[in-house]
Fold:
Amino acid sequence: MSIVQRAGEQEKLDWLRLIRTENVGPRSFQTLMEIYGNAGNALQAVPNLSKKGGGQIKPFSDSAANKEIEALTKRGDKIVLACEQSYPKLLREIKDFPPVLTVQGDLACLEKDSVAIVGSRSASANGCKIAQMMAADLGKAKYLVTSGLARGIDTAAHNGALQSGTVAVVAGGIDVIYPPENKDLFYKITENGAVITEMPLGSVPKPQHFPRRNRIISGMSAATVVVEANLRSGSLITSRFALEQGREVFGVPGSPLDARCKGPNSLIKDGAYIAESAEDIISVLQNLSYMRPTGLFDKASNDLYLAPAQKISEDDVDKARRVVHEKLGASPTNVDDIISQTGVPANIVMVVLLELELAGKLDRHAGNKVSVYSFDNDLFGKAL
Amino acid sequence: MSIVQRAGEQEKLDWLRLIRTENVGPRSFQTLMEIYGNAGNALQAVPNLSKKGGGQIKPFSDSAANKEIEALTKRGDKIVLACEQSYPKLLREIKDFPPVLTVQGDLACLEKDSVAIVGSRSASANGCKIAQMMAADLGKAKYLVTSGLARGIDTAAHNGALQSGTVAVVAGGIDVIYPPENKDLFYKITENGAVITEMPLGSVPKPQHFPRRNRIISGMSAATVVVEANLRSGSLITSRFALEQGREVFGVPGSPLDARCKGPNSLIKDGAYIAESAEDIISVLQNLSYMRPTGLFDKASNDLYLAPAQKISEDDVDKARRVVHEKLGASPTNVDDIISQTGVPANIVMVVLLELELAGKLDRHAGNKVSVYSFDNDLFGKAL
Structure:
């Protein structure tokens, strides 16, 4: 997609409608944009696509989207599309970037280079002190500090960077403050920084929302620093996202006798950088090419959405549908294998899979794999 | 040198006399052995060599050496030569291995694979607990635990491995217990393990003795583990020796807020392994080829001392002396440069340097470099 200073009102409405549409996620949003060139066209295509996949999805309604926009505007919040200048530039580069963000606070801070500081909710006093010091020092060095508004390390990191600017990525709607005891912190953050989310107004965060949220924390940041974390913890999920996203991971070392240090120590064991101070982080980031203003990423993303839409003949899709369906099963199958084994062109396979996804029958997995729930016999015949 | 089960009485006497001779250190001991084939011949050569270098060194006397041996025997201590089976096999491979060790306790334990655990004298309770646990677990896995009998981490490491066997390398004579509060620990160590030193009976440890001692701790061990250590500390010197000796270095991670963790954290930053438990250490050591019984090192060292002595003509040395002297100065000079610039054969240069060393006029430095103190004009003429 080409990056614009600000998107128009209609574009904002269309993007919001498309991403709020049932069974449309960040990945299928991108596929729809690639095929139909813009959100308006994609919205028109959704009913027919889902029907072909055996479902009956309707686009998120114009009025509901308008209602969300009005409510946000009334609250003083903003909507930022992934194609807009204020959208975090590194976030736009991850494979499942959120197309639309809701922002409360200072939009401009999102354009700064970000470092994520995450860690245990039940952190030690020392751990919190380190997080706060690192955040303050990163702030002095002009970095944005990003975290998740949780208790413990997150809270300390935000507190350390209140003056310089910090971003809290939350797992629920922008109007749902969680945990409730961080209400004051929430508002302090929005003074020089921002609270952001991809979730609609009013969404109450559920356990499965936190990993999704974590991909945004690491995805908008050049580096993720884990201060204290148990071996099975959300912070380690965030660091795993960071690695998958090609970003740097730092662990703050700690005593082997403290279970909360097992997380960062294990990261260091596996090759993460060791961070004793903000300086350790900055010295690594200053040597990264993608942290320079003329990065690779902006260039690459300009080619992402090639409007006008690709010309895909409906006839071709109709002919290919059955042979693609036959390759699918409950076990994840590589999409490239489907293409090579069926001989169906990649863009046609993409549409068939999108149909099933919109119909709620297809799951996407890591490594470009897909699986399907059991098919409806009436739609696809006995053979399936 | 070829390894023997036990050296004869005369050989022990000769080796002890040679290493106790003024200006003879571990490196010149080796050079003398290489040239003269055995310690007896080397002792005879010492007076003339030192005279040629402008000094007047006499070999350590027969009676004084016999007195030391008798005193040691009376105490129940043993003398172990580097050519004997009980001498720590990895120690024999370092460039400045001590030719003679004095041992109180169990000789056999020195043949086990050793791991050194070192750290701060003013260690934290947690640090001591970790050192003790690691030592106990390494002991259970049949490793010898080596340390320096100091307060703090050393004491904890020895305590953890009292049952399985631990070695304390001390900086003074075997009869000088330092620090005095570790008297009980000293005797407990000798029950299943040993206390060892290269220093003569009665030597009181001085500050400059500790780094020398540290090279033995790391040199006899496959790995050195630093538990807590300030940035400028003896433990980091030990770890530097370990690296120079081609051994493994482990750091136990700790809080950046504790100055005692800066040492191991900095080691990890520089590429040392991270050790949270004995398991981390063992898993690395099990994959090292030189830890296997048929290692490279024994084979290499068999060729070290090529008896009978090399035939070096005194005339050749006399002719070459002046031209070699002219190349020397107060700044360290590479021995290879002296050889290539003078055209004098390497073994002749070696003898000329040895003469100066025995005369107390030459210092050896890292990287095969030597420097000299100001020469005596009467001996070498105005030109120098």
